[in-house]
């Protein structure tokens, strides 16, 4: 059974920096493209960044391009999201999951990111 555990969220002032981590178990991690998703109160869960299994192909949603960096360490079964220049509108619960497949893994608990103005 695949388990995803997100960490690294917190409260930060606008312009600040956070790095999120997502540890995965129960899978051959390098076989899966992974993504970071976020869900603000009252909104849907949308992908903000994706990374291929090898880490060579990256995608960013327009609102985070140039500010967020996704990376992965396949030896540690971990995907990261480094977030710079944070804005109040980045406030959300952040989740990781596979992307590009027919189904998602069971969602983890997410990690709350709150950006104060």
Describe the protein:
The chain is mainly beta. It has no helices and ten strands. It has strands at residues 3-7, 10-13, 18-25, 34-39, 45-51, 58-60, 68-73, 78-83, 92-98, 111-116. Strands 2-10-9-4-5-6 form a six-stranded mixed sheet, with no helix packed on it. It has a four-stranded antiparallel sheet with strand order 1-3-8-7, with no helix packed on it. Strand 5 and strand 6 form a beta hairpin. It is globular. The N and C termini lie far apart (40 Å). 31% of the residues are buried. The mean pLDDT is 97.
Brief summary of the model shown:
By secondary structure, this protein is mostly beta strands.
Chart the SSEs and their pairings:
Blueprint: E1 3-7, E2 10-13, E3 18-25, E4 34-39, E5 45-51, E6 58-60, E7 68-73, E8 78-83, E9 92-98, E10 111-116
Parallel strand pairs: 2-10
Antiparallel strand pairs: 1-3, 3-8, 4-5, 4-9, 5-6, 7-8, 9-10
DSSP E strands, number:
10
Rg (CA only): 13 Å
Following the backbone from N to C, one meets helices and strands in this order, namely EEEEEEEEEE
Regarding quaternary structure, how should these chains be classified?
single chain
Could you name the ranges where pLDDT drops below 50 across 5 or more consecutive residues? none
The global form is: globular
The helix/strand class is: mainly beta
How is the biggest beta sheet arranged? Answer: 6 strands, mixed
- What is the helix fraction of residues, given as a range? under 10%
Distance between the termini: 40 Å
Strand line-up in the sheet with most strands: 2-10-9-4-5-6
Number of helices: 0
- Residue-averaged pLDDT, rounded? 97
Strand composition percent: over 45%
